[in-house]
Amino acid sequence: MDVMSNTSNIISGEPGKPAISVSTYSGADNLREPNTQSVRRFRSYDELKKDFQKINVNVKTDPEIITEIMTEIKQDNSSDERLAILLEDLSYYLHQIDNAKIFSRNGFETLSRLLHHPSYEVKKASLKAISAATQGNSDVQVVALQNGVVDQLHSFLKASMDEQDSLEFTTLLSGGVSTLSALLRNFPVAQKQFFSTSVMSPSGFELLAKLSRLNVTNGIRGLRVRILTLLTDLYSERLDTQIAFGEDPTKTKMDAWSIYAR
């Protein structure tokens, strides 16, 4: 039997055997009748659009989140634990320069008030939030000074010296010095106010000296290191400005040095 005969038998079928349809091999039936299960896997454009709209509704910007946090902080029904958590969350967002600028419009008054909260955790978290907002952010440092944050930190450190000897006590003092450092660095106007003998009582130097001489046993070494680091950094900052002015006495550098030299 030749090849053509075999092919003919396969297509047409031999007597007593069903013929094999060409469409079985060509997939013609599949092309004519789409698989509805495959089609159902793909949603319409309108369905996708509705899903994306739902997602966008739930997306909040950083300023919106900060506003919500501050609104809840200002309420009087939050527990101390919840308040501390909110302040920790706030600190996370305030590390961003733009977020801190938005917060500074009306946020420092609330944080300054919380420095006198009875809860240790709340006070510690408040200090952390102020540090996050002011660290390396000159615009926010100016707003903080205008809102009396330097005075509040001075009062906080002064009042905290009278508390009991404990690790929590010295931890708060160390946190206060760190927050003060974030506000004073590269900000000679704030430094002048804090260390002035006529504005603050006791002056900043006297206050830091008293803190370093506290007769406590828990964490005093860490507190002294923070105080020494702050004073050393501020001295180096002042010296660098003086040297820069001496090497290049332009008006800009002269103005910068004149602020330190007053």
Automatic annotation (TrEMBL):
One GO biological process term: protein transport
Cellular localization per UniProt: Endoplasmic reticulum lumen
Superkingdom to which the source organism belongs: Eukaryota
Keywords assigned by UniProt, alphabetized: Endoplasmic reticulum, Glycoprotein, Protein transport, Signal, Translocation, Transport
Signal peptide start and end residues: none
Protein transport is among the record's keywords: yes
Family label: Belongs to the SIL1 family.
Protein name per the record: Nucleotide exchange factor SIL1
Gene name for this UniProt entry: SIL1_1
